[in-house]
Design brief:
Two copies of one chain form a homodimer. By secondary structure, chain A is mainly α. Chain A contains five helices and two strands. Chain A has one domain (15-153): Four Helix Bundle (Hemerythrin (Met), subunit A). In chain A, strands 1-2 form a two-stranded antiparallel ribbon. Chain A is globular and about 45 Å long. The relative contact order of chain A is 0.18. Chains A and B meet through helix 1, helix 2 and helix 5 of A and helix 1, helix 2 and helix 5 of B.
Amino acid sequence: MNTTVKATTSPIVITPAELLAHWQGHRDLTRRVIEAFPEEQLYTYSLGGMRPFGEMVQELLAIAAPGTKQIAGEPAEELNEHLEQAKTKAGMLALWDESTEELNRYWAQIPEERFRERILAFGQYEGTVWSTILYFIDNEIHHRGQGYVYLRTLGIEPPQFWDR
Amino acid sequence: MNTTVKATTSPIVITPAELLAHWQGHRDLTRRVIEAFPEEQLYTYSLGGMRPFGEMVQELLAIAAPGTKQIAGEPAEELNEHLEQAKTKAGMLALWDESTEELNRYWAQIPEERFRERILAFGQYEGTVWSTILYFIDNEIHHRGQGYVYLRTLGIEPPQFWDR
């Protein structure tokens, strides 16, 4: 068995660069959902006893860059979902854009073999690195989908899901 | 340049088997959301002018197995989102379970190099095979997240998102 055989039995499905672009495409769509959300409803509007959309976005901000930082080799941090700057829509969008840059920067530091390793994300969630990253992305899609319902019930048309 | 070098510059992020297991994990969660949904509301309840959850599930059924069948090399079919059997909850769950088996069967027929090729899914959506599969999964997460809001506003606690 050599590396050539290994490559044949475990073919490339998606490359690290493609996975990053996939995530950033989703993050760009989420940014447009934040932009579409009325500022006065970000922390006041909710359905079925769920969190307001602003709190969901704070969770996404708490996960993306800090989570990727740990994957890149830094010590685990605790989840910080209370970001003072995110209390206004402009502040939230500014944090989002900073996260976008941080994500690109940390991603570039992830060694290629890292995706197959195990990690205890935020010191508490165990899994492979690849499954952890997919969890981050899936969690964003999940909450953004809920944001779509919030927007629709507020009479606002969300951006198209497929437009990434 | 040989295959060995190529394997080094494009490391494995996720294998085909892992991607299938990831998707089936999501599909198992979606199945439990369908189970949690009151049958009498599947096609009558909606928020903000959106589709009832039952129609979203028909879309997911129309995509998963037929989409994977095409990826496995069969001719493209048109999207068929009108499934008579899905009109009842029991029928919908039975179709869901059939799709689970079909998905496994077609997946096993996908050649390893196929994930990097381009495809015109359902004869109209162009992309790579990997991005098409991620789109199928992401679309399911998106609509299931909306189903969570429907359930919550109906006073029903959905299954935990992380329980897959």
